[in-house]
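Sharing a chain and its predicted structure for anyone who wants a worked example. Both blocks are below, sequence first, tokens second.
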Amino acid sequence: MSNPELGRGGPLLVGVDAGTTNTKAIIIDLAGCVVAEASEPTRIEHPRPEWAEYAAETLWEVAASAIRRAVNQLDDPDRIQGVAVASMAETGVPLDGSGAATGPAIAWFDKRARAELALIEERVGPDRLFEISGLAPEPIFGLCKLLWHKHHRPDSFARTVQWLNAADYLAWRLSGEMATDYSLASRTFALDLGTQRWSTEVLEAVGVDASLMAPLVRSGQRVGKVQAEAARATGLPRHCVVAAGGHDHMVGSVAADAMRPGVMLLSTGTTEAILMGRDTPG
């Protein structure tokens, strides 16, 4: 339970989790004590059987509402010094040059991109794909969905200049800066775990321009400050730093102190994952 009396007078930090079912905002002091929190249902659409997707603008509206409700519990919002967003993985938002979404954000569990997975396997090879990305072939991963937009929405895809994961998109709406952290990038098929760069081999094999992929940053790295429009929508102060967040299960591992080699974490939410830290990717 939150307690606005905790951390009175000291700096505060905001964490946002854009989850499959709910979007949560939590405000903590530097000791990690919860000062305020709020939650909003993450509104999902099912345009066809077995399809699931989010409208990008709705993702932002829901997140902004959760943040605003948490911030409104504070006596002095100016104490907030930083905000970061975590989210479900494998959910990408295609954007045009003005930052408008050119299509829906296909949900992580939507498997409509089976033909696109087959294309990636044919062009790259399943063994080589695993060697590069560390991922077993599944149609849920980001590059499959990007290619689905390219193949099934060619007119709107022609206007697409950037592909952002869900947390990246919300951080961009907060800061005006586009970037993606490595944990979310690692769920696309397009990140080379060995070089920790976007794989030109994979992208070129399937005809995707590497410029569509956002600059890579470390989770926790500063990407900007809260811009005026976002401040009005959320109640966050303009001086608040926006930092890169990451994949919800992974950032949860940090909070649970489960990133040390040999430590295993069972992370549950709408889905369930078992995670174990390693010294090196692979």
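Comments welcome. The chain has a mean pLDDT of 94.
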